[in-house]
Amino acid sequence: MIKSKLPDVGTTIFSVMSALANEHGAINLSQGFPNFKIDERLKKLVSNALDEEQVQYAPMPGRLDLREEISGKIFVQRGIQVDPINEITITAGATQAIYCAIAATVSKGDEVILFDPAYDCYSPTVSLHGGIPVHLKLSFPDFHIDWDEVNSTVSENTKMIIVNNPQNPSGSVWRQEDITALEALCIKFPDLVVLSDEVYEHIQFTGEHISVLNSEILRARSFVTYSFGKTFHVTGWKMGYCVAPEELTNEFRKVHQFNVFCVNNTMQYALMKYLSTGDEWKQVVELYDNKRQLFLEGMKNSRFKPLACDGTYFCLFDYSEISDLPDTEFAQWMTKEFLVASIPVSVFYADKTDNKVVRFCFAKEDETLSKAIEQLCKI
Ligand SMILES: Cc1ncc(COP(=O)(O)O)c(C=O)c1O
After folding, report:
1. Pocket flag, ligand 1, residue 238 (CB < 6 Å)
2. Superfamily holding 13-31+282-376
3. What is the pLDDT of residues 6-42, one digit of tens each?
C-alpha cells in the first residue's frame, strides 16, 4: 500500500453537502456555483470557436491574443500595465494557478502563512510540497487580518503568505490599511512571496476592489490568481489566469508546463473574443448586489442573524438563536428537515472553530433564493 501524502484529507464538505442536498431534494445553497443561464453571446462564441476548429493545443502559457485582452482589461480596470508575454499565464481555473504558484515556490520545511477560515485548497497544496501551513485566524465577526499577529509570526522561515480578497467564506474585503501593512511586512522580509487570490475581484459591494497589483511593492513579489469561472458564471469551464512578475512567472510556467502544459483552447478562443467585443465584466457586481439584497431582505424575517457581506457571492448567518447544535450537525439537520443546504463555516478552520455560523451561496436564480428564504423563515 502507498503511504498517503495527505493523510488528513477526505471527501470535501462541498461534495458531502451537495450529495445530501440531492438525496433530500433540498435547495442547494452550499457549493459556490451559479444556477442561472450564462450570456447567450458567450455561448455563441464557444460554438463559433468550434466551427472555426479551435480545438488543438494552445501555446503553453495560453493564447497570446487572450493574454493581450486580459492585459487590456486590467488596464481599463486598474490603470496598470501588465505585460501579456511575460506576466500572464492562462490556467485551468484559479485552483491550478494556486497549485502552480505554491509548487514553484514552496520547498520542504518552508512556512506558509494563511488565514482561517480559508478556502480549502491552500493548506493541502502547501503540505503536498513539504511546506508547513501556519494557520492564523481572521478576527471574528468582521474577518479582518490581525497584522500585529502576522508581524510576530513571520520569520526568515516564512516563504509565502496567502491572502484572499474578497474573502471566501467570510465575504470580507480589504481596506487600504491591509495593503499598507502587507507592504511594510514585505519591506522587512524581502524574500517573502505573496499569493493573492482575487477570484471575486468583480463581486465587491462596498468600495472599490483593492488588488495587490495596485501596489508596486507587492506586485513585484506576488502571484495573483483570477477565475473566468467566477466572473462569467462558468465555473465548470475551470478557466483562470495568474498574473506575476517575469521572474515568478518563469518559475510558475516550469510547473505549469508539466502539470497541464496548456489549457482548453476552445474556451480560450471564446473568452478572447468575448473580452475583445464587450465589457460584460463591468455588470457582474450589479447582478450579484441585487441577489445579495434580495437574500438579506428576505432573511430579515428569519431567526438567522446576518454577518457583514461586503464581497463574494456568499453570506454568513449566525444561527445561535435557533440551535445549540455544532455547525456541521446544524447544516445537515437543516438540509434534511428544512430542505436548504449550506456550508458549516467550521470546516474552513484547521482547528474546526465553531462560531455557530453557516454560509449560504446567493449565486442563484431569484426564484431559487425566494424558495430558500421561505424555507429558512420556517425554522
Ligand atoms: C477563494 C477561491 N479561490 C479559488 C477558487 C477556485 O477557482 P476556480 O474554480 O477558477 O478554480 C474558488 C472557487 O470556489 C474560491 O472560492
Report:
1. yes
2. Aspartate Aminotransferase, domain 1 (3.90.1150.10)
3. 998 888 888 889 899 999 999 999 988 999 999 999 9
Report domain extents, the chain: 13-31+282-376, 40-278
Query: Ligand 1: distance of its center to the CA of 227 in Å?
Result: 7
108 φ, ψ to 5°?
-55, 130
Q: Say which residue the cell 493574454 belongs to.
A: 67
pLDDT in tens, 98-137: 999 999 999 999 999 999 999 999 999 999 999 999 999 9
Residue with the smallest CA separation from ligand 1 atom 14 is 32
Please check the confidence at residue 233 and state whether its pLDDT lies above 90.
yes
String of DSSP letters for 278-293: --GGGGHHHHHHHHHH
Residues 193-227 pLDDT 10s: 999 999 999 999 999 999 999 999 999 999 999 99
Apex 234 CA angle, 232 and 235, nearest 5: 120
Architecture of domain 40-278: 3-Layer(aba) Sandwich (3.40)
d(CA 203, CA 206): 10
Ligand 1 centre from 95 Cα, in Å? Answer: 6
In the chain, where does DSSP find H-type helix? 13-24, 40-51, 64-78, 93-105, 122-128, 147-153, 176-188, 216-219, 228-231, 246-259, 265-276, 284-299, 327-338, 366-376
d(CA 274, CA 234): 13
**pTM of this prediction?**
0.97
Pocket test for ligand 1, best of 12, 168, 359 (most atoms within 8 A of CB): 168
